[in-house]
Amino acid sequence: MAGDNAKQIADWNGAVGAHWAAEQEKNDRLIKAFGEAALAAAGARAGERVLDVGCGCGDTSLALADRVGAMGRVVGVDVSAAMLDVARQRADGRDNLTFIEADASRAELPGPFDLLYSRFGVMFFDQPEEAFRHMRTAMKDSGRLAFACWQKPQDNPWAMVPMLAAREASGLDLPPPDPHAPGPFAFADSGRVKAILEAAGFGAVKAETFEAAMFLGSTVKSAAIGCTKMGPASRIAREAGKERLPAITTAIEAALAPFAGVDGRVALPGRVWIVTANAV
Description:
Layout: H1 6-12, H2 15-22, H3 24-42, E1 49-53, H4 59-68, E2 73-78, H5 81-90, E3 97-101, E4 113-119, H6 128-136, E5 139-150, H7 157-170, H8 190-199, E6 202-217, H9 220-227, H10 232-240, H11 245-256, E7 266-279
Helix pairs in contact: 2-5, 3-4, 7-10, 7-11, 9-11
């Protein structure tokens, strides 16, 4: 059915979600700075009720639970069963934190919430305007929103460099990606994001740039292998098949080599929008 997020749900319950669950500490560390920037913009306060959309393995939900305290409540929602298993293990004993396996764009959400927060979890909806309109119904009229989303691939070398290398080595004739298709970069156009949110019942929409280094691996080889498992290059690697994986990995290694520091660690820049808005 068009607009039911079926592909994303399948992906996050397949290889993508399994990788995130298996490599939770590494992956959360990779994007932690961006989540913290969104947390600062969100300004969660003691006693508030918060919905963490696309909560994954629970890293940001735990941080939000610390901020709202014993009198507050955090609900983390995600479609990935494997990632939620990790989240629930990490949250063991927390009375103010609950995780639910559901599609936040369609499920009945246990509001009303003071804050809707997300770290890279809101760019995957087939129908984003409808998704935000639905989530708005679970918010208080005084509610607010804060999330982090990637800017365009050209401004994110951590993604663009390995993606171009993988594309060239894949042997595939791949069409240019639809910039608005559900995926990591669907919200790269801040003007489009503003229009979506305003149509869904939000106002005072702001999008501010935040940049940080992305440490992809302790060595070039480990960074290249990681890129074949997560991010845009990983999708190309899966589509090309196992027989092309060695060539793709080698090509990514060569592309990442110039970004290795004296200690061998590979770091490339990442750039995001920190988006905030108020319910209206």
